[in-house]
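Explain this one:

_____
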Amino acid sequence: MDLSRQIVLERLPQGRLTTDCFRLEETERPSPREGEVLLKVLYVTLDASNRAWMQGPTYRAALTAGGVMYGRALAEVVESRAPGPAPGDIVFAETGWRDWAVMPAGLVQKRPRTAPLSYLLSVYGISGLTAYHGLVDCGRLAPGDTVVISAAAGAVGTIACQIARLKGAARVVGVAGGPEKCAWLTRELGCDAALDYKAGGVRERVREACPGGVDLYFDNVGGATLEAMLVEMKNHARVVCCGSVSTYDGSAPEHGPRGVPGLLVTKRLTMTGFIVTDFAAGREAALAELRGWVERGRLKVPEHISDGLEDLPSALVGLLHGENRGKRMVRIRHPAE
């Protein structure tokens, strides 16, 4: 019997996520029926939103205990019983945390073979497109802007910092956790300054780094950092809300950003939330520009890749603890590879 491995969400976390919330199990490898495809999973992408889905419904249903952990992946079609997908095709699909998956053919999205394949999950995937559409379409990034980006060493932040510079921002400031990450942002990714939120005093140090105020803030964290940033925005500035990672893992914060209504009015701010699928119509144009920058060596693609299906729980916990620089993913190893 051919076997498949999968990781089950054994229990919902109480407080911070730990690896013992998951269980690795073996099952019989599935076979596709009419209208389905058999997928060999190659890379599983990890995002802070994996943790948010354990807290309740968002733009998708909440995760519940006892089922295969939800996750998106890059996979190869091995067998197809549907028109369209063919063996050998590379696809993006919501396979869950498993090494083999059967999916309805209509739920897989074909991707071009790119070297390296991992770029299809990072710069040419949700991370790169989120950074691009968040800044350009949602944030209306303009030449000469002063831009601040939180979680700047993460999957979206590393790309967003560089896009801001490529699109003509006058000053790009990243907010990250720890002096090593901050030094890396200025040394490798071209940030004019990087602020360590763990050292405290974010508001005061933003004021020092951006003495004229901030035109555009790309928020990935919410909480106290968002509260501090609102005070330092220029009149008529824009805030793009991409995520709220500071609230995902552990107990809920005592309060959200204070003073929001008053600051929105007095500064005439625009605060906009979005998800990347809001801009599906502009996907190909965005990808063309991202590819151009990468191929000309103008855009670096930081990735944090580990190996083995069994590493997924610890990789997600590590991401939530801020261990990664750039896009976090796990490469799935199959027997005889």
User: Anything to note?
Assistant: The chain has two domains: 3-122+302-331, 126-279+288-292. The mean pLDDT is 92. The two ends are 19 Å apart (CA to CA).
